[in-house]
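$ fold --in a.seq
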Amino acid sequence: MTRFLYDTAVFVYALGGEHRYREPCRAILERARRGELRGEASADMLQELAHHRLRRTGDRVEAARVARAAGALCDLHDVRVSDVRRGLDLLADASRLGARDAIFAALALERGIEVILTSDRAFEEVGGLVRADPTDAQAVSALAG
């Protein structure tokens, strides 16, 4: 299996309403449940996902459940000071990358993870990080090995 970092968007689209990314993201998470994919994530991704679900549904119990379930599908990494420092450098250098995404990208690079599974094209601005689009079945299959 290829090491890759999950972006929060994969989980958000899988849980969300009708969208061109919904079914591909659901299929990815189903493959993860079956053990065909084992991605990595920032522990902060769980907070972002819980925040998003709470904001969308207002259901605290469900938001926590969803975040816990997402965490069970990933190898989680704590955010370190070095991740934040490198992320701030990435933020300054990338015109489209948001602050949280810059930290996620830095975390991946600091851990030697070269692929991020995301719909967000802003990650393409990060040198050393390859974006795998969830709708690209060939790219997703390559992650499974």
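$ fold --in b.seq
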Amino acid sequence: MDKTSEKRISIIGAGRVGTTFAAAILNSNYPVLKLAAISSKSEKSLEKAKKILGGKATEVVFLNNNTECAKHADFIFISTPDDIIEEVASEIAGTDPSGIKGKLFIHFSGSKSLDVFDKIIKTGGYGASMHPIKPFA
């Protein structure tokens, strides 16, 4: 398979949703999707995610910096609590707007609109949302 067709994914937020989504990507048989990076401000969450993902995550970069995490991917999934999605998007847009153009940012909130990505969209990125059907207790 040609590497140019590979789509790199980063996940911001290493809680239940982010880690479960990371595991699903790592366990999928879809060869063009590659989990590139996971970030969390919480070192405890990152360590837990590393433990859960185990040996399948040897090529995944684990970071405490959301902007750096976004640089590793074509698709950036924000799986933080709903009330900080806009803050995370604004942080990324304000820190390195040149690294946003053409990238797709997706949040998992059922209560937030795409307005949380206004700054991302103004700097050339794209926004989408996807609400999981499954509860993550």
